[in-house]
Amino acid sequence: MNKRMETQKGHVVVLTYPAQGHINPLLQFAKRLASKGLKATLATTPYTVKSIHAEPAGVQVEPISDGFDEGGYKQAPSLQAYMESFKQAGSRTLAELIKKFSNTDAAVICIVYDSMLTWAVDVARELNIYSAAFVPVSATVFSLFRSIHHGHLHLPVNPQARLPSLPGLPPLDFSDLPSFIAEPVTHSAYLTAIMEQQSIIEENDWVFGNTFEELESELAKAMSSLWPMVMIGPMVPSAYLDQQIEGDTSYGASLWNPTSDHYLKWLDTKPLNSVIYVSFGSMVSLAANQVEEIAYGLKASNRHFLWIMKDHETEKLSMEFLRSIDDSGLILNWCNQLEVLSHWSIGCYITHCGWNSILEGLSLGVPMVGVPQWSDQPTNAKFVEDVWRVGKRAKTNEEGVVSREEIEKCISKVMVGESSEEIKRSCCQWRESARRAVSKGGSSDKNIDAFIGALLKKKSKSS
Ligand code: UDP
């Protein structure tokens, strides 16, 4: 029995939605809990289990079913059908997994679940154990949905009208809203799931936000007595922040693998802060004309770039551009993003503004150019430029496309001249602040300790 096993004090099952941007923070939270002496098991779908390697970090990974055990969402006829199937099969198999441990030393006392999967609350209630929702978006975005739930913000939002001012939030324009709010009809299945979260949120014993108090301080102050959220982030591997968890150098989950691993060596040959890293995360598929504009914006910047693009997406690049790249750019299907962002050669990150990517950019102090596409990304991009001041948000033209000129202009603003100096200063401050939050005695660290303390005091709901 290793040291960690000997000291395990209670067992928590962490349930994730099977997408990269959900697995990463939930697995990281499971690892944090394990590092503090709890037994943590990650429950995920069978086709993602093999891509997760968390045992060295003390986290066991167990399969539960979403009803599509070969390929998940891609096999489902619609998102709605997928969510319904996950609810049915997931409730049953999650309960079976938890029951496997009952009447043992490792009986499960709490489910921490991705807030998309609201049915986990019913499983916890049925088994008489605690439930904690894990919100994988910013507190700001969470509070916007909460405003709809409480009737302070009405759908559909009129693009021309002024938005009401909301507690703890800066004035927001229509273009800053998450797409689920701005275009509720296009995204009705997501919106339904999100509003369901809001309607049951108070039924949880805890609600965790992957954010930290300093980062969304106005909101944290305004809402502290009005909502149940406890901020515990950023959930980024310890090696990049507090360095307190031995061997915690990566998330330990990757649904794709880089087709080549020479990109770090390539970065090694480039000067300090000189390379532009471009990534739109794991889900976004850009329109062909947008790909072309980014390509020629990069070319016009006259800088080296590393661009992450799934293989089928590269078909959107013109032969003329591909032929012109030479050693100035590298296009790759996937990378270890943390290794890239922390590399000294990276001077700018063109990002879709997914929440994990934003937290990683902030934690590693990389200036950003936001090119948001959908979901919570527009709101995150607004904060990058106007609240945290760690980058620029690229503006779209009348056709909704960010032009090559705009890309080049934004790159220049974050990489050279007076504006870039201010941005770099903010980046350093936020990097320190993220580090402080998760370090021993920091706000997020204390919140996690308080959770563990309360959980162990209560121990079992039935006892
Ligand atoms: N990521 C990665 N390699 C890549 C692209 C993305 O490891 O080439 C990781 C990234 O570090 C982040 C996650 O995938 O943790 C993407 O999550 P995010 O919320 O930023 O965006 P999503 O993919 O959900 O849109």
From TrEMBL:
Q: Which UniProt keywords apply?
A: Glycosyltransferase, Transferase
Instruction: Establish whether keyword Thylakoid is in the entry.
Output: no
| SUPFAM superfamilies, per database record | UDP-Glycosyltransferase/glycogen phosphorylase
Glycosyltransferase N-terminal domain residues are 12-58
Record carries keyword Calcium: no
Name of the protein in its database record: Glycosyltransferase
Q: Name one GO molecular function term.
A: quercetin 7-O-glucosyltransferase activity
Write down the EC number.
2.4.1.-
In the record, what lineage is assigned to the organism producing the protein? Eukaryota, Viridiplantae, Streptophyta, Embryophyta, Tracheophyta
The UniProt similarity line reads: Belongs to the UDP-glycosyltransferase family.
A Pfam family of this chain: Glyco_transf_N
